[in-house]
Amino acid sequence: MLITKLKSEEAIASLASGKVFIINCHGCKEVGFPEEEAKALQKKLESEGKVVGTLTTDYVCNPTELSLRLRAPMAKIAEADAVLVFSCGVGVQTISEVLEDKPVYACCDTVELPGFQGVTPLEYDCGQCGECFLNLTGGICPITACSKSLVNGPCGGTSDSGKCEVCPDMECGWERIIQRLKAQGRLDVLKCPTQLHDFNTDEATKAAKESE
Amino acid sequence: MRITELFDNGEFVVSAEVGPPKGIHIDGMVEEAKKYLTDVHFVNVTDNQSSVMRLGSLATCKVLKDAGLNPIFQLTCRDRNRIALQSDLLSAAMLGIDNILCLTGDHTKLGDHPQAKPVFDLDSVSLLHTASLLETGVDLGGNALVGEAPKFAKGAVVSPCSDSVDAQLVKMERKVKAGAEYFQTQAVFEPEKFIKFMEAAKQFGKPVQVGIIIPKSAGMCKFMNNNVAGVHIPDELIAELQADKEKTKAGITGVEIAARIIRECKPYCQGVHIMSLGWESKIPALLSQAGLK
Ligand code: SF4
Ligand code: SF4
Description:
- The complex is a heterodimer.
- Chain A is built from 8 helices and 6 strands, in the order βαβαβααβαββααα.
- Chain A is α/β, with parallel strands linked by helices.
- In chain A, strands 3-2-4-5 form a 4-stranded parallel beta sheet, with helices on both faces.
- The model of chain A has no long low-confidence stretch (mean pLDDT 89).
- By secondary structure, chain B is α/β, with parallel strands linked by helices.
- In chain B, helix 4 crosses helix 5, helix 5 packs parallel to helix 6 and helix 11 crosses helix 12.
- Chain B is globular, with a radius of gyration of 19 Å.
- The mean pLDDT of chain B is 96.
- Chains A and B meet through helix 7 of A and helix 5 and helix 6 of B.
- The complex binds iron/sulfur cluster (2 copies).
- One iron/sulfur cluster binds next to strand 6 and helix 6 of chain A.
């Protein structure tokens, strides 16, 4: 896991409109995970009767390990309308892929930590953008899966075979996003408001600017 | 004059595209534009098209405007961050260039400076959003503009013959929400597909100009089929171009094909956008064969 911070309580509440299954990753948490706050928030969701089950594990970013660990709680997961994940962006992407037909939501933003890349495998990549977009993109990272890191949909360059204009060997990340959302019957997710990618990933200057 | 005014008047709006030269001598281009584009309502000026470095779009727009033409300022998000894009939007408005077309832009790797840093701080949707915001007198940083706010006719593109129609419609809707007031399309060679797309796109209530490329040769068509996203040229059209090589070389066949496509699409859209790719001289013949002058 990379260093994460919780999304706002309202944001998480809006993701938990139905029944949810919660997955916590305590992988390389020494790097940074807001454990206490996450616990408090999950307690609240539980008291509201929304949680059908919780799995706290480590290294959800390893697809093989993850599949094994999801076996036991699979029935519970099937009951849930969505899976809420408290992990870095790589973890959320891995879970989204394994649970392909279930909405999987990120409850954390992965923030920049210069010099440390976590213990993540290479299949999925998180650019530590600081404001995780995965909930708007079917769990596929637009920052790292799109050659232009576009956050408002595909450019006009996707080839008919679904490849990226920049490198014909690469799947267009946005084509993947659209196909996944379509398969889940959730294309409407893409009708969200215009997104702006905030490139100021420095928490300190952000805080200073806000207090101004 | 803003392009939206013409649409509002119910005109079938004709625009054509010109690409600035790679250099500072623009007289030839202006003369050609004055000669061949007199029956065209608007002239799009491309922005370092295909990521190939050229003379700037805004400066070229200003020269064309001074020469009596109505330019459309194309902006891509490849080369400028949000500060530079907003600044250029203000510069355009100050120069009286108030027709814009917002694009994401090709990647730098596809052009003649593959070493360049691609920017993509914004994209087509957020650029439209930004222009809309400036019109309210506020910039993207939340700061107030001084004095009267600019006003633009904000355009965008859509690819109606793309295999991924869902993706196109979703993106089109996002562009409309972000402020797009008119659309120009990728080149259309399959009117049936275009007409079907327009059925679905009608819901947005925005004028659409069908995109037209005059096919120059069978080779060009094959190249586009293999390399240009969302463009499909049917085999029959390619055969038509192969039938009489001389006629094709003279541009006669290409103009016939393009005029036919315009006539077929015209009842379903609000205008035509011609990307002549150096064949500006064929535009008058095309317009008359298409019944547009
Ligand atoms: S959107 Fe991508 S880069 Fe940003 S936090 Fe999520 S996974 Fe990481
Ligand atoms: S083709 Fe797809 S992956 Fe490539 S830059 Fe465009 S949207 Fe991104």
